[in-house]
Amino acid sequence: MRYVTRFAPSPTGPLHLGHAFSALTAFRRAQERNGKFLLRIEDGDTSRCRPEWEALIYADLRWLGITWPEPVLHITAREDIYASALQRLDEMGLIYPCSCTRRDIQNAMSAPQEGAPLHQDFGPDGIIYPGTCRTRSIESFKPGEAIRLDMAKAVDFLGDVNRLSWQETGPYETGTHHLDAAHLIHGVGDIVLARKEIGTAAYHLSVVLDDAAQGVTEAVRGADLMEATQIHRLLQALLDLPEIAYHHHRLNRDENGKRLAKRADAKAIAKFREEGLSPDEVKALIGL
Ligand code: GLU
């Protein structure tokens, strides 16, 4: 099977060195395997995405020597696909609407023992949802609410989920990984699949549908998404999507160990460009 990978930035700001590392790693892996490197614009968060940031993404990637086939996939064009996947999950009885705010979730976690220290379990998406809205049906969905996956039901639906596996091809925990039913239920919980409108897919749902639509065989991305992979493998199984491999690369940090992508003042690739650095000098800054 021909190797296909992608780089999937959100046009919410300029690309930084961490993005350059991710895009170049994916591009090189495709080249080395005589495969395909695709670009996907994750412009789902319309309040934060801007056409000028998208234009800058193209300019920065070209400057780094990266090329890709046109047309580029925009996830805003795929709302119907996300909506039909949600409909399918609903027919399977696995999703429910949720009106809880972060504050509601925190309150629900602390309510049982008033005054006791807050006990919270964290999963890949933050606090594990306590299940307040779990008995609601999709018919009661109101615009503005979220849609969650009932994780216990999803695990039950698939039967023996521990048989489901994927390959990690990156430098960490390389090899075969398996889903773990108990961990999915208690350590991940009822993740959000859509926000505000049915069709406005949240990341976990859109990423598996988009990787499948683009024929991706290996997702190359930062190690911060390692824990999310079990969610993606589960959704692939629920939606009959092909299993793909995952290559989680190291994250680029500054001298204090802070992730570049999260630093407000992290320097944009465009700034290095304006200062007259060459693409090779920028690549050297990230060890490439
Ligand atoms: N838009 C996501 C990000 O920039 C992509 C994650 C992925 O590659 O799966 O983090």
Automatic annotation (TrEMBL):
The protein's name: Glutamyl-Q tRNA(Asp) synthetase
Domain Glutamyl/glutaminyl-tRNA synthetase class Ib catalytic: 4-108, 190-278
InterPro entries: aa-tRNA-synth_I_CS (IPR001412), Glu/Gln-tRNA-synth (IPR000924), Glu/Gln-tRNA-synth_Ib_cat-dom (IPR020058), GluQ/Sye (IPR049940), Rossmann-like_a/b/a_fold (IPR014729)
GO biological process: one example: glutamyl-tRNA aminoacylation
GO molecular function, one term: ATP binding
Family: Belongs to the class-I aminoacyl-tRNA synthetase family.
Originating species: Celeribacter halophilus
PROSITE patterns: AA_TRNA_LIGASE_I
Keywords recorded for this protein, A-Z: Aminoacyl-tRNA synthetase, ATP-binding, Ligase, Metal-binding, Nucleotide-binding, Protein biosynthesis, Zinc
GO cellular component: cytosol
Keyword Metal-binding: yes
Lineage of origin: Bacteria, Pseudomonadati, Pseudomonadota, Alphaproteobacteria, Rhodobacterales
Pfam families on file: tRNA-synt_1c
